[in-house]
Amino acid sequence: MMISAEALGAVVVVATAIATLAPFLLIALFIRDWKRGSLW
Amino acid sequence: MTIAEDVAILPEGIAWGLLIAFGILWVLLGWYLGRKNKTAEDHMLAGRNVGLALATATAMATWVTANTTMTAPQLALQLGVWGMFGYSLGALGLILFAPLARRIRELMPHGFTSGDFIRLRFGKFTWRVFLGVSLIYAFGWLVSLAMAGGVLINALAGIDYRVGMTVILTVCVLYTLLGGLRAVIGTDFVQTVIIVLGVAFIAWLTIDKVGFEAIHFNLMEERPELLNLLFPAAIMFLFNNLFFGVGEIFHSNVWWSRAFAFGRSVGFRAYLLAGLLWLPIPIVAGFVALATPALGINVPVADMVGPLVAAEILGLTGAIVVFIVVFAALASSLDSLLAATSDLVTRDIYRGHIRKRASDHEQFRATKVIVVLLGLVTWAAASYRGELPVIGSLAEVLYFTGAFVASAIWPVVAGLYWRRTNPTGAGLSMVAGTTLGLISYFTIGFYVAALVGAAVSLVVLVLSTWLAPRDFDWRLLAEAEPRSDAPVTRGAQ
Question: How far, in Å, CA of B326 to CA of B49, rounded?
Fold first, then answer.
């Protein structure tokens, strides 16, 4: 059973999109924690 | 052994510039973050109140090793789509540890190490067995990471194996020594951002410049098995990797020390979020390898496929991005392991066995001495890679520890949730699981060591508890400084 080009593309695009957003989410959480004084 | 210099994708001068610049950055950051550490608790657990952002990033960074960035593309090239999907299931270890982290923090608000838990929960015999398992694994991982550093720097830039390995190890020992867990967590945050952005950047460019149609068409022509969803070898790999990953996280003090260090309500959310954000990384890193047929790249060394694709698409920029990502990935895991292992040796060997009345100041000083000693011993072992019969390739070192870590999964889980677990049975389950796991490693193959270790350990643990259950008072785990080494049992039920 072979994976199609569309299915492969969909999985990879979703994974890459999450990976791209992850650092920005972490930075947003960092700023939130910093403002609350709860970094450490 | 030197990987052929003709595979190197980065000029040696640029590589040295990057090593020195990032090395100085990590050491300065480590010194800055750790400058206010005054007690052993500050140094080992970063003040026990780490927030969600830093907690999530450190869990992600520690789990993104050089293996993730270099081996995921290799597995995609060898095992196809299941290679990268299977590798991404390593995220389950983080996700499944989330409830355990919450439980650990609740039960042991003053705990320091995984060894503290095993000693208080199961007593001296099981504690010593666990220390053996945990230290063998930690040392195996330390040596394999140091070896990976030397191998990858040599492969990417042609720098001598021992020189590259020594530089990476020295940088990590220095900033861990200066700043303890605070330095490790702080640098992990920066390293996570660098690693994930770098990997995603290369993937987007591969998608843009090659495209899925061309990748799929060329794979169907040249390597159709890589697109097969029923590839048997890949499915076997998936299950072994699952047990190995869960075993690594559940028992290792790397993850326990973070459970103790994260804020009271942070551990569960941090591990869960880290697992979900880590899940796509092996897919993103692995996918680029599938573009090799479309790009017409000849891959002389399988684990160099990721850097080769990046260099083909991006030229020198791609090579620089890969080098920085690999350096960050290596440092983020090596520092965590150095810190967590020195904590374990300080608390459970030095204070637990050698100097039982050690003051806080003595423990603080011992932790620092032990980090340096660990660095030296790791350097010595990694220096003789391939020259000693016991230390072989990277994969051999890592998979050898599979039997050890998988045999510790059930004693840890039962210890946290099953009040009647037999303490001696927990120790025996690790001994039996490790022994039979190692026998299967040598007689059958590396891919069954973790599976056999976990299965045998489960049987021994359940049988011993069924035959001789023991009661336990959970409140005993909350002691700040335990009065006794023996677990308190309330008689057989």
Answer: 30
Reading the block at residue B407, the tokens are: 């045999």
B188 close to B314: Cβ distance less than 8 angstroms: no
Reading the block at residue B377, the tokens are: 């011993």
Per-residue HEC secondary structure of B341-387 comes to HHHHHHHHHHHHHHCCCCCHHHHHHHHHHHHHHHHHHHHHHHHCCCC
The distance of A25 to chain B (nearest Cα, Å) reads: 9
Inter-chain residue contact A13 with B207, CB threshold 8 Å: yes
3-state secondary structure of B418: coil
Six-digit token string for B166: 């020594």
* Contact residues on chain B for A8, CB-CB shorter than 8 A: 81, 212, 215-216, 227, 290
* Region A8-20 average pLDDT: 94
- Residues paired with residue A35 on neighbouring β-strands, in sequence order: none
Q: Which of B53, B60, B212 sits opposite A8 (nearest CB)?
A: B212
Q: From B195, which residue of chain A is nearest by alpha-carbon distance?
A: A23
Q: Give the separation between CA B33 and CA B467, rounded to whole angstroms.
A: 51
pLDDT at B385: 63
Per-residue burial over B339-362, b = 16 or more CB atoms within 10 Å of its CB, e = otherwise: bbbbbbbbbbbbbbeeeeebeeee
Amino acid identity for residue B336 in this structure: S
pLDDT tens for B213-252 read 898 988 888 888 888 877 776 676 777 778 888 888 999 9
Inter-residue contact B80 to B227 (CB < 8 Å): yes
Dist CA B410 CA B36 (whole Å): 39
Q: Do the chains contact at A26 and B228, CB–CB below 8 Å?
A: no
Domains in chain B, please, with CATH? 5-387 (1.20.1730.10)
Q: Report CA torsion sign: B289, B291, B295, B296.
A: positive
Nearest residue of B to residue A7, measured between CA atoms = B212
- The CA-to-CA distance between both ends of chain B, in Å, stands at 59
Measured between beta carbons, which residues in chain B are less than 8 angstroms from residue A1?
228-230
**pLDDT band (50, 70, 90) for residue B393:** low
Closest by CA to B27, choosing from B198, B169, B192, is B169
For residue B4, pLDDT over 50 is answered with: no
Say whether pLDDT at B124 is over 50.
yes
Cross-chain CB nearest to B229 (options A3, A6, A13): A3
Q: Are B256 and B114 in contact (CB under 8 A)?
A: yes
Task: Closest CB to B199: pick one of A19, A30, A36.
Answer: A19
**Closest-CA residue to B251 (of B380, B412, B11, B119):** B412
Q: Residue B343 has which token pair?
A: 């904590």
- Return d(Cα B389, Cα B76) in angstroms, integer: 30
